[in-house]
Amino acid sequence: MLRIYTVVGARPQFIKAAAISRCIASDFSDKIEETVIHTGQHYDENMSKIFFDEMAIPSPKHELGIGGVSHAEMTGNMMIELEKIFSAEKPDCVLVYGDTNSTVAAALTAAKMGIPVAHVEAGLRSYKKSMPEEINRRMTDHVSTFLFCPTDKAVENLNMEGIDGIFKNRPTADKPLMLNVGDVMYDNILFYHDKYSSNTELKFGLESNNYIFCTIHRDFNTDNVERLNDIISALHSLADVYKYKILMPLHPRTSERLKHPEFQYMYGKISQHPNIVITEPLSYFQNLFYLHHSRIVITDSGGLQKEAYFLRKPSVILREETEWSEIIDSGYGVCADAHKEDIINSTMKLLGFPLPEYQELHGDGEAAVNITQSLLTFLK
């Protein structure tokens, strides 16, 4: 029996992990034993427990409760606790997702202990090292034994860094297996289609295909007064001048920041505006439901960019760049950063022209099967 330890800690990882956990349970339960470790990076119930319940992810065997501290303290504490678990339980492989502190902490710990690391979403690059996520994903890729890429572009990025996926007999961290397996989040979009595409009545007075879906959570936006005020001001103009309805589920970090005095004026304007609906974070299926019925997305989330693309919705991205450059190249996304006029103009441009022909960029919905079979083949 192959013993795989899945390490997760943040909302996007719960979503990605669900696809592989579901695959193991349905097709490989006689060959693979999965153990889940939850680092606690997202400790708010709306950002964590609800996803385990809703998506039937196996309950964590270990909950580390490490969150709400600095990057260094969080990563270091995670490594200390993970080392204790790996030493005692000796997994055959550690499976990590994406680019969070939980990802890099688990990857570094396992790699230094000689345990193979499998990185789901390998090869993504924003080429901006001022982003903690970029540092995390690069470090994780370069200590991993299995690099499971979601797109051709991700494979190209790793090729440019000297990784070719060629090995003898068995992959190692020095000569890793690299495959374009597709995107596990696309697996979920297809699998859960009936749950989020139902005709359940929209709440908040929203009409299908006639509102903007907006999320803001990146620290470089929430922790910068000028950037966050510019974003809020743009949203106010879209609602007030252009009369668009906006649905805005607030991430806990964003909600906390907007309570500060420096945001009192602009936050007051949007929170009281009849065209802007502000809610607590949505569950996974609620999120997909309201995304499915929206007209366009404004976000700084990498995962939401992808989900919007899968559902054929255009995105205005509140960043200078994105690791999902295929979305920009396809014509379904525009990077507007946090500039008020760019956000407004990009939104109006995407709303004013027909979208280009949709391209299947993220596989065929079999990413979890591809990953699981690869691990079984090479970890015997």
What CATH calls the topology of the largest domain is Rossmann fold
Total separate domains? 2
Fraction in beta strands = 15-25%
- Alpha carbon gap, first and last residue: 9 Å
> What pattern of helices and strands is seen along the backbone?
EHEHEHEHEHEHEHHEHHEHHEHEHEHEHH
Explain what the structure shows:
The protein is an alpha/beta fold and about 375 residues long. The chain folds into two domains: about 1-185 and about 365-380, Rossmann fold, CATH 3.40.50; about 195-350, Glycogen Phosphorylase B (Rossmann fold), CATH 3.40.50.2000. It contains 17 helices and 13 strands. The strands form two sheets. The protein has a seven-stranded parallel β-sheet with strand order 3-2-1-4-5-6-7, sandwiched between helices. A six-stranded parallel β-sheet has the order 10-9-8-11-12-13, with helices on both faces. Strand 1 (about 1-10), helix 1 and strand 2 (about 30-40) form a beta-alpha-beta unit. The protein is globular, with a radius of gyration of 20 Å. The model has no long low-confidence stretch (mean pLDDT about 95).
Describe the structure concisely.
Helices cover 44% and strands 15% of the residues. It has 380 residues and is α/β, with parallel strands linked by helices.
List the helices and strands and how they pair.
Layout: E1 2-8, H1 11-27, E2 32-38, H2 49-55, E3 62-63, H3 71-89, E4 93-97, H4 101-112, E5 117-120, H5 132-141, E6 146-149, H6 152-160, E7 177-180, H7 184-191, H8 193-196, E8 211-215, H9 219-222, H10 225-240, E9 245-249, H11 252-257, H12 264-271, E10 276-279, H13 284-292, E11 296-299, H14 302-310, E12 315-317, H15 325-330, E13 333-335, H16 340-352, H17 367-378
Parallel strand pairs: 1-2, 1-4, 2-3, 4-5, 5-6, 6-7, 8-9, 8-11, 9-10, 11-12, 12-13
